[in-house]
Amino acid sequence: MVAPTGAYADSDMFKLQCSRSSDRPAAKRWDNHLTDECRARAPGILKVAARFLKRPGMISLAGGLPSPDYFPFSSISATIPAIPGAAESDVFEAESTIAMGLRDIASGDAAFDLSVALNYGQAAGSAQMIRWITEHTELVHKPLYADWDTCLTTGNTAGIYQALRMLCDKNRGDSWMTEEYCYASALETALPMGIKTVGIKMDADGPIPEVMDELLTNWDAAKKGARKPHVLYTVPTGQNPTGSTQSAARKRAIYKACQKHDIYIVEDDPYYFLQLPSNSNSHQNSSKLPINTFLSNLPPSFLSIDTDGRVMRIDSFSKVIVPGARMGWVTASEQMIERFIRHAETASQGPSGFSQALIYKLVDEKWGHQGFLDWLQHLQAEYTGRRDVMLAAFEKFLPKSIVSWNSPSAGMFCWIKIKHSLRPNAKLYSALDIEEEIFAACLKRGVLIAKGSWFRAEPDLPLDDVFFRLTFAASSAENMEVAVRTFGTALRSIFNLA
Amino acid sequence: MLPITKAARLRALIATRRGVASISCRTARSLHTRSSLNSAEAAATAQPATHEVDYAPSLLSEIAARRAKAGKLVAGIAAASDSDMFKGPQTGKPKAKRWDNHLSAESKSREPCSLKQAAKHLKQPGLISLGGGLPSSELFPLDEIDMKVAMPPDFSEKGTAAHGQRVTIGKYDVRDRDGTYDLSIALNYGQSTGSAQMIRFLTEHTEIVCKPPYADWRICQTIGSTGALEQALRMFLDKDRGDSVLTEDFSFSTALETITPLGVKAFGIPVDDQGLIPEAMDELLTNWDAKARGSRKPHLLYTVPSGQNPTGATQGLERRQAIYRVAQKHDIFILEDEPYYFLQMQPYTGRGQPDAPAPNNVEEFVSSLIPTYVSMDIDGRVMRMDSLSKVLVPGSRLGWIVASEQIVERYQRHAEVASQGPSGFSQVIVHKLLDETWGHEGYLRWLMNLRLEYTKKRDALLAACEDNLPRDLVSWTPPAAGMFLWFTIDHTKHPSAGTRSLEEIEQEIFDSCIKSGVLVARGSWFATEKDAPLPGLYFRATFAAASPENMNTAIARFGQAVKDSFGRK
Q1: Residue of A326, A360, A439, A468 for testing the chain B interface, max B β-carbons within 10 Å
Q2: What is residue A82's predicted lDDT score, i.e. its pLDDT?
Q3: Model confidence over B75-119: pLDDT tens digits?
Q4: Any CB–CB contact under 8 A between B141 and chain A?
Q5: Fewest C-beta in 10 Å: which of A162, A285, A399, B214?
């Protein structure tokens, strides 16, 4: 691949099966869903002018790109740890390195080097990373329509932020739907934009499609103070905070309801690859799965069932490589990606070149797709082990008469329900009071847990249930046990249990 | 090199005139013994002992002493920090004014993130958190990053390839090697301000370069000035209020493209070869007619004071002071976008003339820079946007803002939902280079070297212009900073002047340039008010990236295109 400084790339250049010329249908258009702000974005004039650079012999005095002659980095390399027996491919057998020099392209046949990665690039990200992501998308999601496209983001935070600016406009009275308990940052993104959030009631499988359908069918704009929602934001896998994962059937039902009401879906799926098998011993075996079995065991994403091009899928390296990369990607129809990139040109100019260089070297040149999927299996085994430690601690230390939970099949979170009505003198206190009482009692004893009320999509509605979110991602097994035991002790003392 | 006594006199003079604290070589050298600079570096800066004149303690040594006194910086995963932790005493300085009425409804309604608020409990000793959703650093597939970086005095690409310094960042340097920053911290989630480690370096750098005259200034890192500008505009501009923004009448095209979709108008202020004309700005504001303009009176100025894009103009000290006074008079908040600040070049002496003497040391270099708006900002009415893009690498996507505590806090709230701060790879790599390998003095020497390199490039372009352009048709001012040269073409001498529009003539010259193989930027691309008639015929050329030979060929082609359009041979 030849992709010099600032080279433009889109997925069509790298697709194997479903290119625009295929017989698959094109995505629907979403003009009426877009905001005025989004529609008003014109292509950057300097980036348009850059198309003249393709002419042979052209000398440019137009762009303000610094010369790599003055980049103070001659080379950057990184050491990758050995993970013996982690997977079927041998890339993890021994410690190894990845390395990138300033002029690898000029001095060899490298596809990417620091002179390119560390200069200005396209807001969509480097051609090198776009290629990898396009191939990855074909492997994992196999989109059903022809004109899907991808671009990099500076992480899912930015992905959600830009998607909202694209789709929701307070001057139009817009609202959006989310799970009734929702990722707090997403809620904090919408609020200052003047967008009303509508929470969809959930069960163990995530948002309930019938509830959503009914809500939309009977929408009363005057009463609700917002026009009928045209956007659904959902975290289908290991949802934050409830830990719930939508089954394939649930996704299809939600998708169908969205078709009926012309809802655009923002699928935020950072935990997709943290699938956690239910049998506590199975992770030993699952890490040895052949790649095809591993892939076919993954639940279908909204993107993979999307016949209309009504899904923007937001993916991230944060939970599976490192959060500090501040790098992720979005996949959607060409129209939506083009609008997304126009915004990224003025909002971020794409992710860090250091991040792109190192992640590219790792996932493309070092691991390849096979190695990346092997790495994910290793990660799943690790997180499954951690989840099981936490669940065992629940069994051991929590008073089951007042506490219940589901075993999460993906992600990083356990969601615990407290029967607050069983507190002595419960009638004297609101659910919020009791939640605060438990939170404070844990804190006093040295344990920090997250309150369910922090995640409420509509915090003005009365709170009926008391929940807490506990994560098993970052603590050691010993600390998890200590913390869960302390939580149990605090509950017993408040609920006056033996 | 200036004789030592003369250099010392100059330093003292500069120090009194500009209030710039002098950086004595004696103390600078003592800094080396404590820093990780190698012996080649120390030898290169070694100065005769006769330099020891009785100055006030230098800022660099003050900063080193402050660090030593504060002890090792302890800042783990997602540690909160602000500039106050790292500043020198701000005694006697006033606090910044409040800008409540300048902020947009959106900005004012931002609440602190509930999860980040909960993080304050993490300070409790022995606390176990099951609260946050941070992945475990144990599961990061990177153990170590090694790199080879440029070292003084030979910063060249060749020199670095041959004998650059090897530096290593480990995963657990803090735990295992007495480090202050490592991969387990940098590559996990962090604060939207960026890491404490980088906040410390940038706070100190701001003290060296800007010395804000009010007490409650702060730093927040950004994902580059592109992102910073969009956030700043959303903080201050509200289309529902009929807001607008002032800027140079030819302005950075990406900035204009950021403003337009927000539904607010940008109004251009005429410029001369020193940029914005303060009298024109005052007049525009004094006679503002909201109805005729379709916007209420502006309360925000966006300006690029040094090496402005596209005009290449640099505002001198008096010019900046005059603009600041106009901003005070009309209660304007200033966005100071300064990516080219450190690309202030040597004065242009003319062809064949001896070069102006280069700064002898970093103190002379810092003193030679035109003071920033922040350095004269007694009201706290300036947000300065800085970036590493033009002076280190654009790909770091790492910059920072300097503003009052109120403004930085609002910026931070926005960054929490818009970006979560810059890349951890960028932060830890840049920190390793700037803080741990170069130190403040090494970084200033890098910047000084860049100044001389860009001076050479500019002079090559100016020589090409002198050789190839028809002087009666094309005029230019040698730029004092930045990357851009702005050509003014005397359109009154065009054979079709009066019959064809300026846009048409501009298009004709541009097309002819493309045909002959040179890409220059059209003036109209940068016009702030696109619906107003063009005030003249302009083109922008850059000397940043082309070789001297290519610049000569390119300018010859441009000159021919102009001559062709004007019917000359």
Answers
A1: A326
A2: 84
A3: 999 899 999 999 999 999 999 999 999 999 999 999 887 777 777
A4: yes
A5: A285
Whether residue B457 sits in one domain with residue B445: no
- Is B159 found in the same domain as B186? yes
Q: Which of B272, B351, B281 is nearest to B314 (CA)?
A: B272
Q: Where does a domain end: B14, B48, B70?
A: B70
pLDDT of residue A288: 66
Token readout for A73 is 């980095």
Low-confidence ranges of chain B (pLDDT < 50): 1-56
* Domain shared by B545 and B427, yes or no: no
Query: How much is the pLDDT for A193?
Result: 97
Q: Which residues in B lie closer than 8 A to residue A46 (C-beta atoms)? A: 253-254, 521, 525
Lowest mean pLDDT, pick from A13-17, A479-483, B137-141, B358-362:
A13-17
Indicate yes or no: CB of B106 within 8 angstroms of CB of A194.
yes
A363 touches chain B (CB under 8 A): no
Å between A23 CA and nearest CA of chain B: 36
pLDDT of residue B52: 38
What ipTM score was computed for the predicted complex, to two decimals?
0.96
The pTM of this model reads 0.93
In 3D space, the residue among A222, A224, A223, A308 whose CA is nearest the CA of residue A261 turns out to be A308
Class of domain A383-494: alpha beta
Domain tally, chain B: 3
Question: Within an 8 Å CB–CB cutoff, is residue A412 touching chain B?
Answer: yes
- The residue whose two tokens read 């402050």 is B66
pLDDT number for residue A20: 57
Q: Is residue B34 part of a domain?
A: yes
CA-wise closest residue to A166 among A5, A321, A37: A37
User: Can you give the residue range of the structural domain that contains B459?
Assistant: 453-565
Q: Could you tell me if B217 and B347 lie in one domain? A: yes
**Do B345 and B435 reside in the same domain of the chain?**
yes
A403-405 and A328-333: which strand pairing? unpaired
Interface list for A 77-96 with B (CB within 8 A): 77-81, 95
Within-domain flag for B250: no
Is A95 in contact with B139 (Cβ distance < 8 A)?
A: no
pLDDT: which is higher, A29 or B12: A29
Strand-pair partners of B448: none
Among the candidates B389, B423, B449, a domain finishes at: B449
8-state DSSP, A366: I
Contacts of B186 in chain A (CB under 8 A): 324
Distance CA A373, CA A375 (A): 5
Separation between Cα atoms, residue A448 and residue B32, nearest integer Å: 44
Tell me: do B379 and B457 sit in the same domain.
Answer: no
Of B160, B517, B543, the CB nearest to A57: B517
Q: Which residue, B411, B404, B412, B388, is CA-closest to B338? A: B388
Tell me chain A's radius of gyration from C-alpha atoms: 24
Judgement on whether residues B370 and B476 belong to the same structural domain of the protein: no
Any chain A CB within 8 A of the CB of B198? no
The span from the CA of B237 to the CA of A122, in Å, is 27
Name the residue among A40, A66, A412 with its Cβ closest to that of B261. A40
Q: Residues with Cβ < 8 Å from B102, sequence gap 6 or more? A: B236, B299, B300, B333
Q: Parse chain A into domains and list their residue ranges.
A: 11-50+122-377, 383-494
> Based on the domain organization, do B464 and B358 belong to the same domain?
no
Residue of A322, A412, A415 best to disrupt the B interface, most CBs of B under 10 A:
A322
- Per-residue pLDDT tens for A106-128? 998 899 999 999 999 999 999 99
pLDDT per position as a tens digit, A72-111? 999 999 999 887 666 556 678 888 999 999 999 999 889 9
**What number of other Cβ atoms are within 10 A of residue B502's Cβ?**
19
CATH topology of domain A11-50+122-377: Aspartate Aminotransferase; domain 2 (3.40.640)
Indicate if the pLDDT at residue A164 is higher than 70: yes
Cα of B517 to nearest chain A Cα, Å: 4
Distance in Å, alpha carbon of B33 to nearest chain A alpha carbon:
23
